[in-house]
Amino acid sequence: MTAQRIHNFNAGPAALPLPVLEKIQASFLNFNDSGMSITEISHRSSHFDAVINDAVERARQLLKLDDTWHVLFIQGGASLQFAMIPMNFLGQGQTADYINTGTWSTKAIKEAQIQKKTIQVTASSEDKNFSYIPEAIPCTPGARYVHITTNNTIKGTRFAQFPETGGIPLVADMSSDIFSRPLPMEKFGLIYAGAQKNLGPSGTCMVSIKKDFLETAEDDLPSMLKYSTYAAKNSMYNTPPCFGIYTIGLVLKWIQEQFGTLEKMAAFNEQKAAILYDVIDGSGFYRGTARKDSRSLMNVTFRLPTEELEKKFVADALKKGMGGLKGHRSVGGCRASIYNAATMESVMALKEFMTSFEKENG
Amino acid sequence: MTAQRIHNFNAGPAALPLPVLEKIQASFLNFNDSGMSITEISHRSSHFDAVINDAVERARQLLKLDDTWHVLFIQGGASLQFAMIPMNFLGQGQTADYINTGTWSTKAIKEAQIQKKTIQVTASSEDKNFSYIPEAIPCTPGARYVHITTNNTIKGTRFAQFPETGGIPLVADMSSDIFSRPLPMEKFGLIYAGAQKNLGPSGTCMVSIKKDFLETAEDDLPSMLKYSTYAAKNSMYNTPPCFGIYTIGLVLKWIQEQFGTLEKMAAFNEQKAAILYDVIDGSGFYRGTARKDSRSLMNVTFRLPTEELEKKFVADALKKGMGGLKGHRSVGGCRASIYNAATMESVMALKEFMTSFEKENG
What we know:
By secondary structure, the first copy, chain A, is α/β, with parallel strands linked by helices. Helices cover 36% and strands 16% of the residues of chain A. At the A-B interface, α1, α3, α4 and α7 of A face α1, α3, α4 and α7 of B.
């Protein structure tokens, strides 16, 4: 940790790799010898072409996407994707399945329903406050897609394996675990992720779509709400969120340079999460909120014996330079978000703090 | 000009005030003693509340907006506004007028038509390649709004005065001249501006809506496509484009500290534009493309005797540290974009270059 920097356990916007921030800072007045800030260069320039093409290429390399896939950058966050997906893929008489594993899945379902699209919620873990990932997931014959949220930031769960759908493409909100592990891309038709957890600053959503899936999309839609508009123009039908795309490219470069592959990134994430879950499981003081087989590697959610102790935990941690440990306002408790950029140093600092806090207050 | 920085005449993304860039750079690893970058702080934190409230308040002060107005930040650029405006304000049986003054107006019209909304193009300057602003502008009785583009970046024209509409609210795309001059806000129902010309980095669109106008909007729309969603949550229904909003706040602060009011900002802009138009008008070499009474103060568009000379002009200027002078790819020629952040030093450098280039090549 650099002097003055805290250990940042925010759920999103979240910690970014320090080398990436330092690189942005160093070149902020003069990007790539252009004599301009990255925030001042034209998106129609060769400077920016190189930026966006680099980000796309690195995403392709890490996810092993061949040219049957588009890699797009769209504004509006995952929340706009909740609306665009049914808008683009559910025409008259078509239907899709949704699996409800928490707050964000519920919102995705709502945005399809607002548009009066025909969808089925084929599985849900609402019966136990979304503390687990459902196993038995039936599919509706002829469904256009099955929508899932791969990692549930608020409830601290994730799909460790992805559902068998009998060939129906998965459409997945990966906002909180994109690039944290390798993916069986052959199962997916579309994946999307708001940048602000694992990728970059808020304001950019990365979307990858299989080309043959895109070809089945509705066409009679406003330009900015059609995936085909972005696919046809390398995400530059209008001015894209340049600073966000630039940062995402740097973050992907950092993953490649530091870890090489998503297999190695995943191993590091498993190691970090295990350290915190071991503290929780070895204690009678902390209590994990997610079922063990459904635990997220990105968002470690836990409770303390009382709400007073939870408040004290969050406040004392902040005094020791650890921020963002309060649980989501909708569920309470504590949460340590440890995305790709969370360092081992941060995780070890939290482990030590948890141990000493338990000793002093347990 | 700081060493290594160029005089940036880009049309957008465009020059930002150097003191703003320096401030962002200096605090990029530790925003406001948070121990985090502005790109890493939670939008639900008191840190970010202060950022967004400051930006909103400064926009209100400069535009003299009382609490009958919302000030919102929305992603997707002006292009998404082209779709959202008819979506929100044209219900069954309702109609609106559009004035067509160039590329962006044409796109706004197209996005209403894609949605099969009933609109009329009541005035257009297409007959003369959009080189002027139409004077006689009839209004359709009962129209919900009259849409205009206040400044036409590509054609180099602007509405010097705003149309009389007999009380029908103007809805205005101000992407390229927002905060460049005072506005008679009583004429408007909604104004919007993509940030990347006069406000900040690309990826954020500022939208101000009169509350009573918003109350007439359609409700049965996807959450992210309804203005009321943003109005109800201070633009934070989902994670907003935090870095963009932060930068916009700094730019507005810079206007207030450097100029005080939009009247003074406008005077500076008039002074800068006059310097370049005087070179053009005093020359038999350069030829302005916009009718004099319709000339933009933000985008000075001009031709040289031949396309070869235009290419040489742009290339020679770049060698002398002046960038972004190529006209829009759809019209050719040359264009100097001199938004609020363009310095007098940059304008004087361009004036001198234009004069010497004419001497050498005229």
